[in-house]
């Protein structure tokens, strides 16, 4: 039966009201002050409040009761003396009352009005409770973390707030074990592991995909659940698959009433949302783990490439030295002249291997943060002219034309690294123009920038692949089967240019050649210089 709290600021309640309500079985509680009413509400949880106070002073008491969060879901009726003026009726409702009752109203009328107020109170209380649960859940979703442990703690706190239970734990399923993510009010620790079969409660919940509740005294359970007397295990199901269990309960001896149990189960009906949040966090954790493994493998691969490239340089240098010795002897001794062409071929292949090893070393240095760029003031045109001269000697089918409107183009750059870039671009122009043709190099100053363009008449690049050719090991599909290479030259070139504070772009049409455009600042910004200086030359092998 419902509990009715009578707040009587005038003294004893009219005996008729008290007697009629008691006779039908309502539990009656009395207080004489509003402050006592708020304390009593917390301890007794009344279903209805009857306020008896003088008018108009009683209106302020009514406002205080209605303003309290403790009475948000409880109906309040103003119990007026028969002599109270009816003109206060509207003001009573404006102050927050749900009804206006007279002390000497008939028994039938009093009981009917009280029953109506109690039914309205139950509806309001349920709505308030559901609204509060939804607010808490929406707030939880809004602020959800992808950190699995942090999210588990917040989900458990949400479960405590919505069910009013104070002990529980959250478990995630890993193969045939349950691993504790968070716990409070019971003897569990984070990362504690249990076999599903150890707990009849867990086993039945996961097997039926339904909440299982009851006393733990009459069913097998592991020591970790020993201090719980009553518990409910809610399976967490995401996309049709069980991923864990939410366990809530009490450490004191307690058996919920049917209404209390229904309220708990209604609150936990939102477990699928919890399951999805946990699943997302678990997937994010697994992705991060896989990414760490991939990064570790990538780092080891870079170290391996650097080590192999570095170690191969030594025997290659020795081969190069002996090849040069043979060439000199072949030039002096007539009986070795017939072998001179073969020696030249060996020397060319050694040079090619040296270039490939140099690319691998630079790519590995870039990945490991050991790539040094040391800019200084110098004549960029002189460096480009030197590289053009060297590259022209490697081909008889191509003509490399260099144009510049100035005799000297002075700027800040690393001559060794920029020479690499120009060499890569010219080498690509030669390699991917197998029919020969003209390769045009233009170097000029445009405002505070230096612009270098290299154009060829070669096979070009498919439009859909232009963005990917600057990637590590990136090669155009029309070059893979017909031309050798590692796909590192443009990747290294882009890194070098960007470390100078510049950009490199390409425009191309398949079968009609390509134009590479490099833009460099005439003066490297101070902040970029500082970052370049942090990569000391001493780090290089």
Task: Give a verbal description of the structure.
With 541 residues, this protein is an alpha/beta fold. It has 15 helices and 18 strands. The protein has a six-stranded antiparallel beta sheet with strand order 8-7-6-11-10-9. A five-stranded parallel beta sheet has the order 2-1-3-4-5, sandwiched between helices. Strand 4, helix 4 and strand 5 form a beta-alpha-beta unit. The longest helix is centred in the middle third of the chain and has 62 residues, at 271-332. The chain is elongated. The N and C termini lie far apart (87 Å). The model is unreliable at 536-541 (pLDDT under 50).
**Tertiary shape:** elongated
Radius of gyration: 42 Å
Task: Count helical runs.
Answer: 15
Termini gap: 87 Å
Please indicate the percent range of residues in DSSP E strands (runs of 2 or more): 15-25%
Helix content: 40-55%
Stretches where pLDDT is under 50 for at least 5 consecutive residues are 536-541
Average pLDDT figure:
81
Task: Quickly give the structural class.
Answer: alpha/beta
Count of extended strands: 18
Largest sheet: 6 strands, antiparallel
Write out the strand line-up for the largest beta sheet, numbering strands in chain order: 8-7-6-11-10-9
